[in-house]
Amino acid sequence: MRVLLGNVLWNLVAQSDMMTKAILLGLLLLSVVCWTIVFYKLILLKVKKQQLKDVLVTLEKLENYDQLVATARTLHKTYPGHLLNAQSNQAQKVLQRVVKREFLDYELKALDEQRFMVLDEMMSVEESYISLLSVTAAVAPLIGLFGTVWGLTHSFISISEKQVADIVTIAPGIAEALLTTVAGLMVAIPASVSYYYIKGEINKVEFDLQKLSDIVHNSVRITLLEGKSGYEIPITAQQTQATVAS
């Protein structure tokens, strides 16, 4: 600890060659970028998870499709509101044009495909940038190892030139070489832990989005099958039960 707090570590960096300094600088910049991504993602995920939680609680209190549409309009500026409005807008178009029983299954499949496209798009946005954390966790130790090999080679060349192999001559060169390995691990370990933690949080968001999407889709399905909210579709009770069963 005294070495880390004193001038020894800085002296090792100062006396290292340009290649070692470039590697250390690169690892430092990579670490800054990774921590920026981590804090950015964690803050956004916290807000989005809370919004999803609130919306799911709200939807449980709704009684019909019309209330769902009204709720979606009030939430258009929120994260779950994007999914709600995308599904409700598409559902409105379907409800206005479906007048025959034979087109119902086709329209329901189209709604399914459309909502999954929106979900995929939203999850693609959530997973943006975090791949850099995974890449950093894999590459940073290799960069550090490259710096170590380079430093050891440089140290051995220096020893051969001086033709002295005592500990006083060898130790500084080895310490300088191992410095890049330590730096690489200090960058890689937090990046790896952060990646898996953020990935887990994104999976939770995905689960809530899927749950939200299912609620909206089931509401639209019931509206189509039962002709609620003024959208009358000529389906008998027997046909309705057969469609639900299918």
List the helices and strands and how they pair.
Elements: H1 2-5, H2 8-15, H3 18-59, H4 65-74, H5 79-97, H6 104-126, H7 130-162, H8 167-226, H9 237-245
Write up what this structure looks like:
- It is a single chain.
- The protein has 246 residues and is mainly α.
- The chain has one domain (2-245).
- Helices cover 85% and strands 0% of the residues.
- It is built from 9 helices and no strands.
- It has helices at residues 2-5, 8-15, 18-59, 65-74, 79-97, 104-126, 130-162, 167-226, 237-245.
- α3 runs parallel beside α8, α4 (65-74) crosses α5 and α5 (79-97) packs antiparallel against α6 (104-126).
Query: How do the SSEs run, as a string of H and E?
Result: HHHHHHHHH
Average pLDDT taken over every residue: 78
Total beta strand runs: 0
Number of domains: 1
What percentage of amino acids are in beta strands? under 5%
Derived structural class = mainly alpha
- Note the main sheet: none
- The coarse overall form would be rod-shaped
Q: Please give the radius of gyration in angstroms.
A: 30 Å
Total helical elements: 9
Query: pLDDT under 50 segments (min length 5)?
Result: 228-246
The level of helicity is over 70%
Question: What attributes does this structure have?
Answer:
mainly alpha, 9 helices, disordered C terminus
Short overview:
The chain has one domain (2-245). Helix content is 85%, strand content 0%.
